[in-house]
Amino acid sequence: MIRAALKSLLGRKLRLLMSTFAIVLGVAFVTGSLVFSDTLGRSFTALFASTVGDVVVRPVGGTTTQGSPSTQTLPAALVDELAEVPGAARADGNVTAVGVFVVDTDGKVVGGLGPPALGGNWNDAPAGHGLSGLVVQEGREPRREGEVVLDERTAERGGYDVGDTIPFVTSTDRLNLEAELVGVAEFAEGGSLNGATLAQFDTVTAQELFLEGRDVFNDAWVTAEDGVSQEELAARVREVLPEGVEAVTGDDAADESASDLLEAVSFLTTFLLIFAGISLVVGSFLIVNTFSILVAQRSRELALLRALGASTRQVTWSVQLEALVLGLVGSTVGLGLGVLLAQGIRAVTSSFGLDLTGQGLVFEPRTVLAAYAVGVLVTMAAAWLPARRTARIAPVQALRDDVALPEGSMRRRLWAGLALVVGGLAALAAGLFADVPRAGWWVGLGVLAVLLGVAAASPVVSRPFLSAARAAYARVFGAVGNLAGQNGLRNPRRTTATASALMIGLTLACTMAIVGDSAKATVDRSVAESFVGDYVVSSAFGGEFSPAIADRMAEVDGVASVLRERFAFGERDGDGQGVSATDPDTVDDLGLTLVEGTADPLRDGTVVVEESWAEDEGLTVGDTVTLDLPTGEARWEVVGLFEDNPIVFFPLLTTVDTLLDAGFADRDNYVVVDAEDGARGAGLQERLEEVVADSPVVTVKDEAGFAAEQREPIDQLVLMIFALLGLALVIAVLGIVNTLALSVIERTREVGLLRAIGLSRAQLRLMITLESVVIAVLGAVLGTVLGTFFGVALMRALRDEGLDVVSVPVGQLAAFLAVAVVVGVLAAVLPARRAARLDVLRAIATD
């Protein structure tokens, strides 16, 4: 039986090769995601191991929850004292700043998206365990004001060599500065900054630029003498530390930083694995279909084996053996393709700022195990149903000319499908509208159950559609159209199984189209209703910028007033919480609609709260909001509640001085400019843009530009999802091609007879194309209907999150249907060509 199974497999190499495409692509996505994830983890682990000392001494609250330095510092005298601790070889103070952007030779910012633009002071202290940190590999270290060292990758991307003058844009009061590039540094142990940029000045200059000229540091490294462990040195250092300062080992500091950062970007790996799962689900339909057709074509052969004495189990496992071989081959090819895919993902993320080109791909053993486990198990599970049906072939059927596989009850399929749909809808409703743990899992399982339920019931549900298609074809294309329609009705299982693969991809595409369009419509309405002022000034990268910009804009001719808005992040009950801030005398310019209390008495140490957030937290006027901030626990009195406002980005609004007192840096996030009467449109925007002409980090926008900026991240996310869903659609198209090709092989004698009684090659190609179009349109119609339902339901569930506009992009959905017709035509090209080239006499003689 093993020899018979393998011989049968090798005898149908082309057919099985086509069915491997789905598993190859699915395994490749899983492999690529895991390789990229491991590479990302190794890169950050290596990076942080090279950027900490043996012991790191830092002020408690020295960094915000976003990882930026706070205003909490260490006095230089403490660093000198740390150098005298027994077991310490040396101690070095570090100045660290974020928002120090290098401007390249074309006047554009180097990096900016994602990884930070870092600045600080140069020192040659070794990293933990004696590792070398950054070392100057060209030029020398900075020694005086006006000199700077860049990391190698930043210098290369900026187009600079040693001796060039580098322009910078900073988020400090000193908005623009220039320095001579005197050295280029790299990690001696290998690795990179993963897309971050680093500019290092001499210590005095760094303190002047980033610490207001005070002789203090953001943290300090203490290097251990030979034979002294990090734990021993940390314990001795703690004995001399004042209150509010802590010491941690370099290993703990590195692990902490790497873990926080990996957790922040973990969504990327999860995102990729979700789409790998979608690809495998879609691919499973293709594999089930392929094996169903192959088993049907071999039904007489299998019946003959039963007649010769093969047991039911032997026949079943012969099919499973073929699936095992197919899974192994597909997994092997998918494994190799996954490595290439990981390189592609690395290249794409580098274009968004996360540059891992300096880190080699990490290929862990678990990746190989996962690839083969996924590929083999999915393939064998998908082939199980066709294999099980082989057991129902009676040996006596081998004596017949035509052997038909037993078919299960359509009624059972219908009831099973309806049960899955009902269960899926219940899970979907629980995830969207009920307070259940891990709601995302409920939604995902609910969507999957509904899709599988519709796929199971579709042979019955879609019969009216297939009958209508046959009638329409007969009316338009005559006898050829009637034949094409009857072929679709002849085996509704096969037709709908092939269409279901396309249905899944289009369901998710339509859902995301509705979610994206609704989100953009919500943004447009919110901005139109609540936009205040005439212009908004913000960072092109969504970060902080220098407060000097608002000061300069206040002096521009035609400006009536400027309003600063700042963001900060603390913790509330262990979760991150954002806070907005503005000056008390400009709070009325935000256009707040107060529903309780008043914003007039907003003063330092108080807060006004967004109405729905206050309701969720059980707060009202007079209550106290507690947050953990860099300077410790803060308790702010609630003095008012306001309606949702697009300019106030977080549900808590306090004063600028409150944030400064809490340890946050003096930086603006948004500036709203109000024009004098008659000044708007009279060249004012051009004059405002002149203020930031030397600062490519900052942009000036009117209402339309601000709305477009808010829509841009939504467009990027939807576009990325569509690109990933394209993989599922490719598999679905391959499924149509595969089904048609195998159907042509299965119907070789029928095709020969049709040609013999006068059907031309052109008519034969038309017939197969019409069959393909029916499959594609059926999948598109089912996908569009389900996608519209899921999209509307999801938006209804998100009303309390502020997404209260439901917008269905009818034009986009119609385009999906039109593309489905094109897909059907293109998918039929190769199968139709093969059918048309069959020799008539050989086809008639085919057994």
Automatic annotation (TrEMBL):
It is found in: Cell membrane. Residues 274-395, 723-839 form the ABC3 transporter permease C-terminal domain. It comes from Nocardioides abyssi. The chain crosses the membrane at residues 271-296, 323-348, 368-387, 414-434, 440-461, 497-516, 717-745, 766-793, 813-832. Belongs to the ABC-4 integral membrane protein family. Pfam families: FtsX, MacB_PCD. The lineage of its organism: Bacteria, Bacillati, Actinomycetota, Actinomycetes, Propionibacteriales. The keyword Membrane applies. InterPro entries: ABC3_permease_C (IPR003838), MacB_PCD (IPR025857), Macrolide_Exporter_MacB (IPR050250). Keywords: Cell membrane, Membrane, Transmembrane, Transmembrane helix. Residues 17-239, 495-690 form the MacB-like periplasmic core domain. This is FtsX-like permease family protein. It is a multi-pass membrane protein. The keyword RNA-binding does not apply.
